[in-house]
């Protein structure tokens, strides 16, 4: 089996399913659009607050972008679990390691590209509305936040992709992760310095802060998110290898 | 030439034995009908051959090699397992392009099989809009994509209209004539009889028959005549003189194997033997098949019903 052939096949799979291609585009467009709106409407007022982290505020729309990233990771994988599609895929590529690696490479590669693009465009477009609070790429921590933010979105997509292989359904993944991100993490997340710091989204978002709060630093926080994604990718790999298709 | 060889193949799901020490070979150059009631283990066997499920024990090989070790699987084996496997939001052509890319098969071939399967006109429509028959044709197009030496089709005529059924029949016979190995599952005997050269019959995961189609027909569609007469002794003697044996069938009726009603009627008339009843009986293939599988039907309404039909 040729690796490049399988990669190409996986790329056509993502491209040709509306839900995956659409959510990948949504990562970029939703994040940038919401960030521009938020910055224009309340950006300066929020920045005026005591102790506001200007850099973290610049990535406010990541709360929404990460949901699109999760949806991308989930739907790119879940198409294999509809109507026995995985059997057709495995008949074409019987080497399960190769199929899994190729799929996750394509999902990860697309997510990193979309993530970095989103991250930089979100930051730059949002700052245009920030007046005297505006940050530049040269300011401390900004470049780190832009690069780290892109990686963060990609890691969340891979986290969801691995989980979807385990659960064999995008609906299951999304109904587990979205409430988790919107509610659990949001509620317990404000209690810094606790176990909540190690939740995949809270930990990774440290990289977006000018002054990381809590136990984890910027890059160590992102590393915790990477560990979560790696754990789920391993679980998915194990599930695909072990199960009957 | 590639054959499919199944050796002592067993697959258990929990405590259920879906495939039970199955051994048979599918040879090239002929269509092998793979028959059995629902739940007999046909689809499971096909999945085991493709390495999709792991056998509990035993082996399934293609030309002596397990499927997973084939260098270019799509060029060696084409399979249709489930017409629902194509993603609804993909177009038919994209579905095939995905497979062609993985198997390094030229795009030209995608358009060829779309044409061959009669769905070229709808190639750029989303699969979601397809009828079951069109999905079935797409699945067959996918199976033919790599121009494979082995073709395995699981209930391919499902959802096809009568014209489609004739098409698939001719297609399968054509593939076999070209020297390919063709395995086609079905749960309908009469349908299978129209295209298969060879039969492999399963019941509850076990092999019930592995025989040429012609032998099965000869063995199971024997002509016989049912008669009732006021003078059985004379009639039996007349029949015996012509090499026929009349066997008592209860209720004063007699059965004569290998005979036709017109011959016996003429014979009785010529010798003045009064006949009260005279009728041809022909066990149909479907009946022969039902009789064979009656004890092994997992989902029969009741065992009695199944036997009555048989």
Automatic annotation (TrEMBL), chain B:
GO molecular function, one term: ATP binding
ABC transporter domain residues: 4-229
Keywords of this entry: ATP-binding, Nucleotide-binding, Transport
SMART domains: AAA (SM00382)
The keyword Amino-acid biosynthesis appears for this protein: no
InterPro entries in alphabetical order: AAA+_ATPase, ABC_transporter-like_ATP-bd, ABC_transporter-like_CS, P-loop_NTPase
Family to which this protein belongs: Belongs to the ABC transporter superfamily.
The name this protein goes by in its record: ATP-binding cassette domain-containing protein
Organism: Streptomyces antnestii
Source organism phylogeny: Bacteria, Bacillati, Actinomycetota, Actinomycetes, Kitasatosporales
